[in-house]
């Protein structure tokens, strides 16, 4: 049974301190004084009987119990916000819309489960999904046509003015059809003997792929086709001897089902973070928070690991 001494202000203050990493900044966001914020946190720790945060000159840091409590505190606030928004939406007879951009690896692997979970958490919300290359989706995010983008972190110059929250890490794979000649004697140096489906300029994985090839002494592939189209790559790789260089998430289902085979090349240098990209100058809506929660629930259950 929930301790009746825990009030909404305790949860709200705790979550805001964790988000900002600072009592002072969190207090300003909630229009409270810093002593009032500190007192509220102390009350919560006395009620729970444990230290939830450690204070230092650098700010605040969650303890292990604090990390656990934060997860459920966020869920509680999100659920409460969903309930309030549900009442408002029902009154207006309108559906709140969330526009999400998904890079190919996310669209193919993570999004189906995330959409199902989001539908459970926010059954009245309207979700719009757009996939495409990194540069295109980021531009749509900057213009306000998308509320958030999920995918790999791009080069620093493309990420300026955006927030990135990591969800998991992913690396590139070289995949071929079952029975491909390379499978009998896998050799990275021999990839150039076949057509290659290669990430184009602007693709988030291209610099990582180039770095990996240089590290292995591999030059440019003369016979290559550049695209991020998952639909094309899946068909062309299965019907030809092409070697497809792509993020594992794009072809995870095909590999699991045996329709494509990953060549046993060391691609650790291409490993990079996949996460949520948002505009910090735009307030995060309740449906966006619920979608982020849906993503974490799906990842926690195994997808994207």
UniProtKB/TrEMBL annotation:
CC annotations in GO: cytosol
Cited InterPro entries: HTH-type_LysR_regulators, LysR_HTH_N, LysR_subst-bd, TF_PcaQ, WH-like_DNA-bd_sf, WH_DNA-bd_sf
GO molecular function, one term: DNA-binding transcription factor activity
HTH lysR-type domain sequence ranges: 6-63
One GO biological process term: 3,4-dihydroxybenzoate catabolic process
A Pfam family reported for this protein in Swiss-Prot or TrEMBL: HTH_1
Family to which the UniProt record says this protein belongs: Belongs to the LysR transcriptional regulatory family.
Name of the protein described by the UniProt record: Pca operon transcriptional activator PcaQ
Organism: Ruegeria pomeroyi (strain ATCC 700808 / DSM 15171 / DSS-3)
């Amino acid at each position: 049974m929930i301790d009746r001494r825990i009030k909404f202000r305790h949860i709200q203050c705790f979550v805001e301190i964790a988000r900002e990493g600072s009592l002072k900044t969190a207090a300003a966001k909630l229009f409270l004084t810093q002593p009032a914020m500190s007192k509220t946190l102390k009350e919560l720790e006395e009620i729970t009987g444990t230290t939830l945060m450690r204070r230092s000159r650098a700010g605040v840091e969650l303890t292990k119990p604090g990390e656990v409590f934060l997860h459920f505190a966020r869920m509680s606030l999100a659920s409460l916000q969903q309930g309030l928004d549900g009442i408002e939406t029902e009154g207006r007879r309108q559906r709140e819309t969330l526009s999400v951009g998904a890079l190919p690896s996310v669209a193919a692997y993570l999004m189906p489960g995330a959409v199902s979970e989001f539908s459970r958490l926010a059954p009245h919300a309207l979700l719009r999904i757009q996939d495409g290359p990194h540069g295109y989706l980021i531009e749509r995010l900057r213009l306000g046509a998308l509320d958030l983008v999920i995918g790999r972190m791009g080069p620093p110059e493309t990420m300026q003015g955006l927030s990135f929250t990591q969800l998991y890490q992913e690396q590139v794979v070289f995949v071929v059809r079952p029975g491909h000649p390379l499978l009998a004697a896998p050799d990275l140096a021999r990839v150039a003997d076949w057509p290659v489906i290669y990430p184009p300029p602007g693709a988030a994985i291209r610099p990582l792929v180039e770095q990996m090839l240089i590290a292995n002494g591999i030059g440019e592939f003369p016979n290559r086709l550049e695209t991020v189209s998952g639909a094309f790559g899946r068909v062309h790789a299965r019907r030809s001897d092409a070697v497809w260089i792509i993020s594992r998430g794009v072809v995870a289902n095909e590999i699991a089902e045996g329709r494509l085979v990953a060549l046993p090349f060391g691609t650790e240098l291409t490993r990079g973070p996949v996460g949520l990209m948002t505009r910090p100058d735009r307030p995060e809506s309740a449906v966006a928070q619920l979608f982020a929660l849906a993503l974490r629930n799906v990842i926690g259950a195994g997808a994207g690991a």
